[in-house]
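Running log. JK asked me to keep both predictions on one page so they can be read side by side. First protein, sequence followed by its tokens:
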Amino acid sequence: MTTATAPERASLRSQRLNQVTHAPHSELDALVKAHAPFSSRERFARFVVAQYLFQAELQPLYRDPALIALFPDLAERCRAEQAKLDLADLGCNVPAPLPGALHGPSQAEALGWIFVSEGSKLGAAFLIKRAQALQLSDTFGARHLGEPAGGRAEGWKQFTRTLDALALSPEEDTAAERAAVAAFQRFTELLKHAYATDAALA
């Protein structure tokens, strides 16, 4: 019945997640461009503040034993430490957490958040090229945008293959989709916070 009434709905979970996050993803891209993070190191540092806050909030998911059982290399995929080193390279203190972080998600919800975090590594391939104009690289100031071990494309394929193969109920799939949208909304909130306050770079 569902496929008959909604033939446009993608068959693979990763494709469906891409579909439901298209709008918030586009909105976030526009917001990033509006803040011109590659116009100066100071502007870029604010972008890194948002990246660090987001990755730090997701650290518990990347360290979750149940999720690591599904994705054995999950802990190594987290970029919070790289972003923290980037902040130090750029002369910034580690920012205080912003209230409203994800807390106690279901496994399905966690999958949606991790999907967004992992997917951002593909776009980072373009961002790090822009960062090079500021004399930043995957060893200084833009480490969190660096290419993961094994390559971006292959790492993403491995992640989505596992994600697509998981046996989830329709309710769990819906929860994952809602969570992916929430992840984009949260990063948008963190980005606005990073560019709105001087305290982030104090």
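And the second, directly underneath as requested:
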Amino acid sequence: MQELSPRVLELDCDAELGRIGEFLRASLARMHRRGLVLGLSGGVDSSVCAALAARALGAQRVVALLMPERESGAASTRLGEQVARELGLRCLHEDITPALEGLGCYERRDQAIRELFPDYGPGWKSKLAIAEGAAGRVHFFDLVVQDPQGQLRRRRLPLQAYLRIVAATNFKQRVRKNLEYHHADALNYAVLGTPNRLEFDQGFFVKNGDGAADLKPIAHLYKTQVYALARHLGLPREVCEAQPTTDTYSLAQGQDEFYFALAWPQMDLALWARDHGVAPEQLAGALGIDAAQARHVYSDIDAKRRGTAYLHWPALRLEGGEQETQA
């Protein structure tokens, strides 16, 4: 039995850069587009995608959009600007706070939060967190709030309140994507999507939000491999060492805290193992967990694939009828 270790995710970075570069150039030619637009958050995924695009096309054919809002992490804009500057990219700033206020993003979310915490208002912060996620059993979500004095409180979220909070915060990803397509249309460019394999496979994206793009150059790469490319490309050290966050809620929130059963290095290995028929007992040994937990992780991977499959679908049509030929 082959040893299961992080070495299975090792990547020939030079060969991968060549493959992705050819994919980007061929895709643009096929779409008859002149360049690429992407949202640059300063995180490792978008930074690597920006570097890949600049390397493949030349920096003059890549536009980076920085799209903060009032709850964005403090480091996001700074790192995005640094990456764009070092790559020589044209960088445009679009503060999406007014658009989100106009759509009622914050107020719709806060109304749902006040069902659990009636005092929630200015000066408070919040986030969602999965319960029992470390055991691979994502049964429910908790709402975590911090009052102006810094005290944290946590309560289980009823389903309807959870859905309303998520629906409101999804405005953030969808507004950003609207702006990406606006600038792409104005330049006859294509929109570059930035999900990695773990996010793409497990449905960790918003449909018609960060899930929308014309091409996705790293959706086949595990997060581990994206970090390897970041180091190989010489991206800033802070980007290469930053832990992934959702950058959606006003309280700091890790992706494993919100969505995944385990931290991303373990989830990468678990996803690889699931796709290669590795027994749960072998995964347990590699991750230092018990076999029951490994089985739960596999079940969680499968459940997320089933539950989010529709996110990957185009709009469904009635086959064989008049609707089939309509755009």
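Observation for JK regarding the second prediction: The mean pLDDT is 93.
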